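quick one before i forget lol
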Amino acid sequence: MARKRPEFPPVHRTDLLPSNLTASKEGKVLDLLAHYRDGASLLGREQWRLFFETGRFDKTHDVDKVTFAQAIGAANRAQMCRFQVVGQLQGWVSNRANDFRDTVTRSSLPSDTKHMLHVINKMDAWFLRGDIAMKETGEIIPVERRFSCRSPSWRG
């Protein structure tokens, strides 16, 4: 049996709640936030470098275990920040892959070229250095097709 809708929609309120935040605590929070933002910027640069070198982001990548912990204040904070940065970057790249797919689909390219571009996009192989083979035929996708996937003209 379906639920009945209430006759009147519920009222949502927002009230200011008292806080025990003192001026010194507020200063510490703002200082932590500034370090966190700086660390996130450094981690973002590191992750983009990894993406262009390996074709993937890596949320467990931490070579020296010290640099980012010093920037953010603790190793656990650096790990949490890295996970958040990687999540944001993966979301951004996924949106660009969707834009690319839509652009290729709407284009007037030959169907075999479209298929190759869709294979590259589906495999997230825009920056992989090795050969990429079509699954059904085993045909190697030409390097020129892979370079065309990286072109800024594909941006939606």
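fyi The chain has one domain: 26-154.
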